[in-house]
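Treating backbone geometry as a discrete language has practical consequences that deserve illustration. The amino acid sequence and the backbone structure tokens for this protein are reproduced below.
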Amino acid sequence: MPAKRTFCGSPEHAVNRRAFLGAAGAAGATLAADMTQLDALASPAVNDALKKTQKRVILLWLAGGASQLETWDPKPGAPTGGPFRAIKTDVPGVAISELMPKMAQRMKHTCILRGLDTKNGDHGSAAVTMMRGRRNEAAIRYPDLGAVLAREMGRPDSKVPDYVSFYTQTEGRSMAPGDAGFLGARYAPMDLTTNNVPDFIRRLADITDLDHKERSDLRDVLGKQFAAGRHSETLGSQNEAYERVRGLMSSEKLFDVTQEPQKVRDRYGPGQFAEQTLIARRLVEAGVPFVRVGRAWWDSHGQNFETHQEMVPELDHVMATLIDDLKDRGMLDDVMIVTLSEFGRTPAINASLGRDHFASAWSSTITGCGIKGGSVYGKTDANGNKVVAEHVDAGSLFATIYEALGINPEKNYYYGSRPIPLVNPGIEPIKAVLK
């Protein structure tokens, strides 16, 4: 029986065809006629070409705040530990919750960050921080992780979005929408909030190919007339975004899981989270730099254990399947998987048998792509109340992700004449978990 969902009262509750062909060279000949025929992408030659270009990231966003105690940092036997055991993994000395038996056999690929101390226990502002690595300033809206990676790892001539975000549940959707901040619309996400396929991607049946082309030509003419004599970064950004959306219309099949062999679909499973994660794999395989898959709702103020008994095994299966799939395709060294929430859950168990918001000692994971698999960074005390070694804040997490992807965390963007580094000054990546 599904666990009851409760809310905490917060108001926040209310393929890249040209780029890939350019990189693949001779190996891309099989794709030239139709980029949506993704079977060709599994060939060694094409994967070798992808490896020579840039990295990719899939973020599994556990919206609402997943419990570290029922996932990556169990405390069995402690007064705060709850009913679930810890189990051994394929990494000696590392144990995780018994609700994750499949990931227990794949920890050699994954790094656990157990020392997150991010200070902020408010859904909305914490989610914004954990999507950006820092808080917005009064006069500056920072780009989130997806927008930065779209800027750093996308190609200027790409006609499809470099940042796709799935969030089709309703709970918490308004907390951390994708946001390009001062980078502009060119790096904004394609937000999928109603289904797994972008809205309006198909040309209307009563519009012919000729009508469609003529309308596009008319827009180009009017756009050039309007832009003549004007210099505007906003105008240029909007035009680039339009071109990328138009290009997406030729890539509809990337979002269609029925294009996958049935045995692959069966491996992931029939649920929405599983299907969206499979689509994410299809997108990164085709060259999209960043895909976020949101899974709500982990905000377990009541019935925490029932909620996690339902949701953690799903995460365990989907994440393990994604790791296996990427490994089988020779992509695990080039695609990073991140699990992240806005915060964790309290060690204390409340009167409703729930765990409340907790940002002082919680966990995240990073898998693949420049990260030392089997590593654990950070240690919490016996009851999970505080970090006692190797603290991690949002900035150092983001600096580590950038460094693992080959991006200099100290690189500056410019907001007007003001230089703005990718992470705040003085923040360092966690060298201990980098290859």
